[in-house]
Amino acid sequence: MARVCVYCASSNDIDPRYLTLARDMGIALAAAGHSVVTGGGRVGMMGEVARAARSGGARTVGVIPQHLVPLELADADADDLVVTATMRERKRVMEDGSDVFVALPGGIGTLEELFEMWTSASLGMHDKPVIVLDDGGFYAPLWAFLEDLRDRSFVRQEALDTLHRAATVADVLALLPR
């Protein structure tokens, strides 16, 4: 089964429906036999995904840079909690330890991680799927912007084709490698 890296919000100050979505994602990944890689925080959607995955028997790996340990309240319950020296090292460890990347709703950190993995996939630097869970149209404005960039020839269609869009948790599962 796949090691699924999930990017998502680490804030608790969001609409509770996103926390529910994160729980649903963790439960579904565990039920399908996948393991979960997160940014190593125990708060917000990040914590919900990891707790739900563990509750279903999935192995969880949290990767957190030392300077975020006190801010994000590290997920000490992770099966493997990796504390890195820098954010760049965190991203490398997450990339190397994952087979697929899934972006749930999130803020600038989620977007930055999503764009880095998508860019490297579009350039052929890795062949791991990059999936956006566009629950309730959360990413619709971003998707419209990306399509506009394509229409203006700033993004190649081939690059856009490497980014997968899923509307539901079930759609994400259907896109995961076995």
Account of the protein in words:
The protein is an alpha/beta fold and 178 residues long. It has a single domain (3-175), classed as 3-Layer(aba) Sandwich (Rossmann fold). It is 46% helix and 18% strand. It is built from 8 helices and 7 strands, in the order βαβαβαβαβαβααβα. The chain has helices spanning 16-31, 44-55, 69-72, 87-96, 108-122, 140-151, 157-161, 169-175; strands at residues 3-7, 35-38, 60-65, 80-84, 100-103, 130-133, 163-166. The chain has a 7-stranded parallel beta sheet with strand order 4-3-2-1-5-6-7, sandwiched between helices. The longest helix has 16 residues, at 16-31. The protein is globular. It starts with a strand and ends with a helix.
Number of strands: 7
List the strand order in the largest sheet.
4-3-2-1-5-6-7
User: Structural class of the secondary elements?
Assistant: alpha/beta
Overall pLDDT metric = 96
Round the Cα radius of gyration to an integer and report it.
Answer: 15 Å
* Run of helices and strands: EHEHEHEHEHEHHEH
Query: Might you state the CATH topology name?
Result: Rossmann fold
Q: Compute the separation of the termini in Å.
A: 5 Å
Strand content of the residues, in percent? 15-25%
Globular, elongated, flat, extended or rod-shaped: what is the shape? globular
- Oligomerization state of this entry? single chain
Per DSSP, the total helix count is: 8
CATH first level: which class? Answer: Alpha Beta
Poorly predicted residue ranges = none
Major sheet: 7 strands, parallel
CATH architecture: 3-Layer(aba) Sandwich
Number of self-contained structural domains: 1
| Helix content range | 40-55%
